């Protein structure tokens, strides 16, 4: 610690991170530190945090990235299943200023995506501070600066960029009788592969992209999966007319109104996949793109699961009524025996647990209150990247806007930085 402090003291002149003199003394006493950051503090080192750090770097604005885990892109590295590939073609998933390698497949594997992100961080010299969970961030009106706290440090800065993601915490539903079940009940964030479920009957709860893909994975490991489908869902083929469905949709939206594009998608899907309602997968009344726009609910891009449902290898059940010992009772009255349950029930933002502000983010879902494309900017130097429900494409758009906005203030303010510093000390 002592060595670390001396090292930081020596770096003060060149680093965007400056220890405040008075705080250095109290830090020695309390064994924690107060750090003045000249540029923005970015909370989260996932793809969004990296994208905005890179955009800022390109504009000459230094930043500090704080990450709770011990690696970049922790969602991808630590909380996703082995067979995961990008759901969308690579050119819709690249971060600003760097394309995927040309020898990567159209849908890179998670290992390739992580490799791309590591090279991205290296290229833009992004060195996140790991094991730094932000427990609170609050705007201090008296000094006109943000105070961002971790267990070890307090970072004082003009700008805070929230990049903790829409998927920060696993969302686990309350299910009656959950304590009685007796077998493993696991969220997809802890599921790696079907290997340990070989020969077992496994109920997968939730029919989004993850739930559907986990079912397929279980089939490949000779488990017997069943899928709980509580709500209506749009299933689209991942590709149509030799192109990615996402790409076709984007292209058509340039020329046609969303309802017509939805009509087109549904007709082609019906031709390729057949009538999904025959297999317990009813479609919502709104089209897939309109529904996505209004509620953020993503259509499922089929990677082969539907064929297994049609062949009977994956059974479909309605909502769960309650669990009993190794048995599941469904809302239609049927009861079936299962060895394990996988909860593909999604994630939620954790912003309300640490960001102390009431204007920009909703306390209810932890997402920006203003709808896309206006959710990226709040008051008093607060920004959000990656909360658009539009994946990596949306995060890149946010990142560019935020960097441009901060650069304007940065240029105007660099001359006053010293004043702020002496005020603090
Ligand atoms: C299974 C899956 C597949 C997906 N596939 C695609 C796809 O193909 N294409 C696409 O465009 N999108 C896809 N997405 C959606 C989205 O692009 C990804 O979730 C992406 O990882 C979002 O990046 P992010 O940086 O916003 O959030 P995250 O990747 O979740 O990163 C947020 C980071 O913040 C850190 N953090 C959280 N709280 C704190 C805190 N209090 N203090 C410090 N650090 C904190 C986390 O540890 C994490 O590292 C997918 C999502 C999932 C779940």
UniProtKB/TrEMBL annotation:
<keyword id="KW-0274">FAD</keyword>
<dbReference type="InterPro" id="IPR050982">
    <property type="entry name" value="Auxin_biosynth/cation_transpt"/>
</dbReference>
<keyword id="KW-0560">Oxidoreductase</keyword>
<dbReference type="GO" id="GO:0103075">
    <property type="term" value="F:indole-3-pyruvate monooxygenase activity"/>
</dbReference>
<comment type="pathway">
    <text>Plant hormone metabolism; auxin biosynthesis.</text>
</comment>
<keyword id="KW-0073">Auxin biosynthesis</keyword>
<keyword id="KW-0503">Monooxygenase</keyword>
<dbReference type="GO" id="GO:0009851">
    <property type="term" value="P:auxin biosynthetic process"/>
</dbReference>
<comment type="similarity">
    <text>Belongs to the FMO family.</text>
</comment>
<dbReference type="InterPro" id="IPR036188">
    <property type="entry name" value="FAD/NAD-bd_sf"/>
</dbReference>
<keyword id="KW-0285">Flavoprotein</keyword>
<keyword id="KW-0521">NADP</keyword>
<dbReference type="Pfam" id="PF13738">
    <property type="entry name" value="Pyr_redox_3"/>
</dbReference>
<dbReference type="GO" id="GO:0050660">
    <property type="term" value="F:flavin adenine dinucleotide binding"/>
</dbReference>
<protein>
    <recommendedName>
        <fullName>indole-3-pyruvate monooxygenase</fullName>
        <ecNumber>1.14.13.168</ecNumber>
    </recommendedName>
</protein>
């Amino acid at each position: 610690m002592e060595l670390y402090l001396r090292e930081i003291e020596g770096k003060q002149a060149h680093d965007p991170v400056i220890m405040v003199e008075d705080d250095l003394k109290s830090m020695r006493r309390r064994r924690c530190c107060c750090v003045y950051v000249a540029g923005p503090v970015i909370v989260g080192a996932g793809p969004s945090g990296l994208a905005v750090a890179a955009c800022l770097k390109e504009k000459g604005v230094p930043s500090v990235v704080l990450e709770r885990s011990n690696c970049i892109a922790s969602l991808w590295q630590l909380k996703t299943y082995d067979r995961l590939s990008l759901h969308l073609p690579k050119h819709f998933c690249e971060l600003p200023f760097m394309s995927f390698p040309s020898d990567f497949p159209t849908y890179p594997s998670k290992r390739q995506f992580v490799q791309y992100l590591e090279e991205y961080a290296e290229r833009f010299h992004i060195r996140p501070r790991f094991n730094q969970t932000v427990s609170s961030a609050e705007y201090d009106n008296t000094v006109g600066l943000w105070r961002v706290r971790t267990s070890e440090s307090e970072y004082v800065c003009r700008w805070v960029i929230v990049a903790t993601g829409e998927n920060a915490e696993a969302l686990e539903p309350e299910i009656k009788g959950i304590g009685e079940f007796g077998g493993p009940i696991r969220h997809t964030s802890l599921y790696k592969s079907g290997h340990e479920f070989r020969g077992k009957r496994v109920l997968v709860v939730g029919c989004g992209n993850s739930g559907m893909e986990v079912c397929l994975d279980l089939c490949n490991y000779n488990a017997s999966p069943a899928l709980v489908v509580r709500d209506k869902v749009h299933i689209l083929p991942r590709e149509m007319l030799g192109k990615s469905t996402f790409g076709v949709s984007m292209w058509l939206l340039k020329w046609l109104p969303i309802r017509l594009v939805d009509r087109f998608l549904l007709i082609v899907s019906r031709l390729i996949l057949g009538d999904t309602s025959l297999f317990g997968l009813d479609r919502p009344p709104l089209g897939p793109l309109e529904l996505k726009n209004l509620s953020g609910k993503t259509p499922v891009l089929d990677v082969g699961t539907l064929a297994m449902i049609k062949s009977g290898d994956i059974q479909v059940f309605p909502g769960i009524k309650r669990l009993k010992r190794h048995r599941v009772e469904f809302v239609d009255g049927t009861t079936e025996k299962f060895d394990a349950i996988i909860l593909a029930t999604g994630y939620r933002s954790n912003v309300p647990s640490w960001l102390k502000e009431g204007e920009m983010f909703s306390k209810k879902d932890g997402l920006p209150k203003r709808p896309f494309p206006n959710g990226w900017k709040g008051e008093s130097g607060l920004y959000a990247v990656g909360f658009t429900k539009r994946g990596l494409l949306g995060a890149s758009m946010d990142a560019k806007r935020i960097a441009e906005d901060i650069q304007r203030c940065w240029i105007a303010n660099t001359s006053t930085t010293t004043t702020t510093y002496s005020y603090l000390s």
